[in-house]
């Protein structure tokens, strides 16, 4: 056995309360590089707040968040994204009136060297970058066969499952080292959900570390390499899916008793 890889992301005692609600309370976590870590927990257990803390939407009231050896708590979302953390949202956030390909180009924009300033000048470098971005976006679309031929479709005309897929691709367009997926299979039927999770394994196999929220525990069985269970803002237990799903505290929180 080789030594475990350095965690790509570490949380130490991270805390975010809303008034009297301890949404996330002294949460510590090491996210192993190159793996899929599943975060499970009943509704209201603090999973989305945890993503909002990692991605810079909220600043923790206490604790620290270190990404690739660098503290990121207190950095604004666009900085965190430029450093290599991308995410999707529990409620899909796409530009619904824009084309699929335009949404992917928006996702890529943070990584373009020239930025908006050069865009105004239409420099040769900007034009070259735009052309290569378009090429990359077209290639990215091939990741999901279900999206074949949809590059010039207006997002609002896609099926719900395909909008979920576009949102994942938009996150991947930024070439993240860490991808945060907030209940990506929500609203999908069992067959679609199982297929999507197999596709998420293909994302991991491309070298992207994945942190995956799911409130339906059975969905991540066979997908997550490592599972962390949360309840009431705190980590209850972590380990393999089998260890975590059998843990008495996890069973109790899912049964709504204690
Ligand atoms: N912006 C907010 N303002 C007030 N309370 C919030 C806010 N965001 C989340 N909460 C509360 O924090 C707790 C955790 O919510 P959330 O992180 O969305 O849980 P989960 O994603 O596990 O369902 C809930 O009690 C929720 O009502
Ligand atoms: Mg949530």
Describe this entry's structure for a reader.
This protein is an alpha/beta fold and 258 residues long. It has two domains: 1-84 and 176-258, 3-Layer(aba) Sandwich (Rossmann fold); 92-175, no CATH class. Helices cover 36% and strands 24% of the residues. The chain has nine helices and ten strands. The protein has helices at 47-54, 77-83, 100-109, 115-121, 124-141, 160-173, 190-205, 241-246, 248-255; strands spanning 7-18, 21-32, 36-40, 62-67, 70-71, 85-87, 178-182, 209-214, 226-231, 234-239. The strands form two sheets. A six-stranded mixed sheet has the order 6-7-8-3-9-10, with helices on both faces. Helix 3 crosses helix 5 and helix 5 crosses helix 6 (160-173). The longest helix is centred in the middle third of the chain and has 18 residues, at 124-141. The termini are far apart. Adenosine-5'-diphosphate (ADP) binds next to strand 2 and helix 1.
């Amino acid at each position: 056995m080789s030594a475990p890889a350095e965690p790509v992301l570490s949380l130490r005692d991270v805390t975010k309360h809303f008034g009297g609600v301890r949404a996330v309370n002294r949460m510590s976590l090491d996210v192993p590089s190159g793996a899929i870590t599943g975060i499970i927990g009943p509704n209201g257990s603090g999973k989305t707040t945890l993503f909002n803390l990692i991605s810079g939407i909220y600043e923790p009231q206490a604790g620290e968040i270190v990404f690739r050896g660098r503290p990121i708590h207190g950095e604004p979302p666009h900085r965190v994204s430029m450093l290599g953390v991308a995410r999707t949202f529990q409620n899909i956030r796409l530009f619904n009136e824009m084309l699929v390909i335009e949404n992917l180009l928006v996702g890529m924009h943070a990584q373009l060297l020239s930025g908006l300033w050069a865009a105004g000048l239409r420099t040769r470098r900007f034009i070259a970058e735009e052309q290569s971005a378009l090429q990359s976006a077209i290639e990215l679309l091939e990741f999901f066969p279900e999206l074949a031929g949809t590059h010039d479709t207006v997002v609002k005309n896609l099926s719900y499952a395909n909008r979920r897929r576009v949102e994942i691709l938009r996150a991947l367009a930024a070439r993240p080292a860490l991808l945060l997926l907030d209940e990506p299979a929500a609203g999908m039927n069992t067959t679609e959900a199982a297929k999507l999770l197999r596709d998420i394994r293909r994302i991991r196999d491309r070298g992207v570390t994945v942190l995956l929220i799911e409130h339906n525990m059975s969905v991540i069985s066979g997908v997550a390499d490592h599972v962390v269970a949360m309840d009431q803002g705190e980590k209850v237990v972590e380990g393999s899916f089998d260890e975590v799903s059998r843990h008495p505290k996890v069973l109790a929180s899912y049964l709504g008793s204690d």
